[in-house]
Amino acid sequence: MIIKQFKDVPLAHFSYAVISDGKMALIDPGRNPKPYYLLAESEKATIVAVFETHPHADFVSSHLQIHRETGAVIYASALFGADYEHQAFDEGDTVTLGSLVFKALNTPGHSPDSITIIAQKGEKTVLFTGDTLFIGDVGRPDLRESVGNKAVKRIELARAMYKTLQTKFSDLPDNALIYPAHGAGSLCGKNMSSDSSSTLGAERIGNWAFKVQTEEEFVEEILKDQPFIPSYFGFNVDLNKMGPEKPKKDDYTFRLSVKQLDKETVVIDTRDAKAYKKGHLPNSINIMARGNDDKFETWLGSIVKPNEPFYLVVPSVGKVNDVFERTSKIGYENQLKGIVSLNSDVSESSAEFNLQDFKSNQDKYTIVDVRNESEVAHGKIFKDAIAIPLYELRDRVGEIPSDKPIAVHCAGGYRSAAGSSILEQKNQTVFDISDAVEEFK
């Protein structure tokens, strides 16, 4: 048995290829199937199965595309209510792959239709736990109250997760390997380890969810301090249930050296903040996509609503494919009106932040804190700051007074670049404190 783990860094998403006797199964594949195809080619393996542990909220899966391009059978719980061609895979069902046997465990909690996939060969047991069991944590139960085949309240799912942890893994050995669908940095849980795998024995000792506790204690803990839910999460659940089509790269226009665009449509400028501030288009929001450390996908899907049209600005032609692929990972490619690079003679620029003046005259500024609620709860950086999380800022601009210049901050500078660009659209003086916030911590 060969197991290959793939990591999508910006989304902290893990997917897997399992190979046995020249046959390959994929588990929770990301939007771009090319890495899996390259592995199959190099290993001279045939992709025959795709397992989906649940309809994902934070990314779009390529399960339907892989099925159409390879003939692989898609296996998913009957509880999904999947609209695409698939084989039901629930507790009691098995699939043989070479010398491997895959079994399903129904493990509700993160979602009502979650499954854990068990791969066994002789004495070796491997668990692909999806968003049920993470390293150091379990999946959040508050994402399916209004979307998916079955809307379920968070408390009901929290109780289901408690039962799952109490009963579903009891007969499995301590040396069973655990491979989750996410790691630290994902919004599908709150306290995940940076480790990419573990054993069931280690989790029984170190994971809070396995400790002896009442159902009420467990429910209180799992629901406490969960991160925000981006706008696109419900959209992705429904898209993955329907079966997403292959991204069509020819459906958008590319224009070089643009001076202006439709002023009624939001423009997402993916360039570095310094370049953005020197010159940008009206109605622009600066969501940087410089590399994998920038969580572009998450913030695009948090700030731009599903089905809302938008343009993308790239720093160069060489970034077009990369930015399109990152956009398609959350299923937003169909609302993309075009990708452009900018002419040097664009109309808008941002005010330059004067750190010394700010230090001496903080009372002359309205300070806006765009960090998340949980961050603010641990302490404000500026005691009089107005706290509005970035993902709500477009809808709450009217709450910010306009009698003073505005200074925007986050924890390090990435979100404040986006936040200040949103507030600039009010046509008043807005400053981005950016990484200078470090001097006030």
Structural write-up:
With 441 residues, this protein is of the alpha/beta class. Helix content is 24%, strand content 23%. It has twelve helices and 21 strands. It has helices spanning 34-43, 63-70, 154-167, 200-206, 215-223, 232-242, 273-278, 296-303, 320-328, 355-360, 373-377, 414-424, and strands spanning 2-8, 13-20, 23-27, 46-51, 73-76, 87-88, 94-97, 100-106, 115-121, 124-130, 177-180, 198-199, 253-258, 266-269, 284-286, 310-313, 336-342, 366-369, 386-387, 406-409, 430-432. The protein has a six-stranded mixed β-sheet. Strands 7-8-9-10-11-12 form a six-stranded mixed β-sheet. It has a five-stranded parallel β-sheet with strand order 13-17-16-14-15. Strand 8 (100-106) and strand 9 form a beta hairpin. Helix 3 crosses helix 5 (215-223). The mean pLDDT is 95.
